[in-house]
Amino acid sequence: MTNILVTGSGGSGGINFIRALRLAEKQRGKPMFIVSTDHNPHYLKFPDSDIRVVSPRHDDPDFTPLLLKLISKYKIDFLHPHPSSEARIVMQNLSVFAKAKVKTYLPNPDSIMPDKLTIHDMLAEAQVRVPKTVSVTSFEDVERAFSELGKPLWIRARRGAGGRLGLKVNNVEEAKHWVELNRLQGRAAVADFLVQEYLPGRDLAFDSLWYKGKLVTSYCRERLEYFLKHISLSGITGTPTIARTLIDEKVTRIGVDAVKALDPQPNGFFSTDIKEDAEGNCVVTEVDGKWHTTAPLWGYAFAKALGKPELNLTSQYLTLALEEKTDAELPNFDLFPAGYYLVRQLDAGVILENEDKTWQIV
Ligand SMILES: Nc1ncnc2c1ncn2[C@@H]1O[C@H](COP(=O)(O)OP(=O)(O)O)[C@@H](O)[C@H]1O
Ligand SMILES: [Mg+2]
Description:
There is one protein chain. The chain is an alpha+beta fold. The protein has three domains: 103 residues, Rossmann fold; 66 residues, ATP-grasp fold, A domain (Dna Ligase, domain 1, 2-Layer Sandwich), CATH 3.30.1490; 158 residues, D-amino Acid Aminotransferase, Chain A, domain 1, CATH 3.30.470. Helices cover 31% and strands 26% of the residues. The strands form three sheets. Strands 13-12-9-10-11-14-15-16 form an eight-stranded antiparallel sheet, sandwiched between helices. A hairpin with a 2-residue loop joins β9 and β10. α1 runs parallel beside α9. The relative contact order is 0.14. Bound molecules: adenosine-5'-diphosphate (ADP) and magnesium ion. Magnesium ion (MG) binds next to loops.
């Protein structure tokens, strides 16, 4: 029996992660005892875990003590904090978790949730293509961005995820109004914004698993449509309702380069977001030592639909953490075949499909 603690398990990512563990339990015959936490008592009902415990938020002083208590009480072998905010706290306190003899498999804390300007600067330094960027400290910088970068532009918050405060802006007036409205309503200060070159091309993602500096496996996909895009100003709502796998060497190459530029010794799961410019060049908008929400779901879907347990990324991640190896030979690139669509809809489950066939996954 392997005892596992998954924190932040009530969000879609955590639910997907635990669902994938349960599939591995069935397909690989590996019994697991899963304890899960979330600060939302309602969402905590969703994950398929054995024990559910409401936790404080990651920045509450009681967060780490609660995890230590659960680790001791349930003899936890492996701790997986799913959301970046919780993963970062665990890595910042790694010595206390190491003392509790619980295993983790995470990047160094600087590689988790870096701010967008830091990402820009580190990647530019390593000559990985990033959007031309002006960091905003005053309204004059917004004007300067339009004279230096042209138009339209993409304005965004330096910190946060899910496309936070992102918007395509066509001129100085729109951009200034956006900053001012968000300042007035207390969401952000003027200096929290970046203005970037607007990238109109494909919306791509490169997901990769690394172990002690070495690439284990990876895959590429394209996001085709976001949830509820019609009621969002930017059309970006954090996670796609429709996405498809693809195989494209140039996406893979820049995805790998971006991870290495962020972290020379990557360890754990890394997500890279790539957008194409008008000429079809790949440009990295984000790289982060976290799981994209759907990464465990893609692995789950392929393992289940094709009857190939080795494609279950979450299961391979656990095996690496506990046994320092995967349980099958995995390709470094293109783990999943191209042309498969993952379709998710609120209250409707999940479908995997290609030209020939449709599988009801969830
Ligand atoms: N410069 C840009 N031009 C156009 N779209 C962008 C730009 N930067 C980000 N986006 C869109 O916003 C999404 C979210 O941005 P991303 O860089 O991944 O940060 P986060 O996911 O942390 O909000 C991207 O996947 C992309 O679709
Ligand atoms: Mg992103």
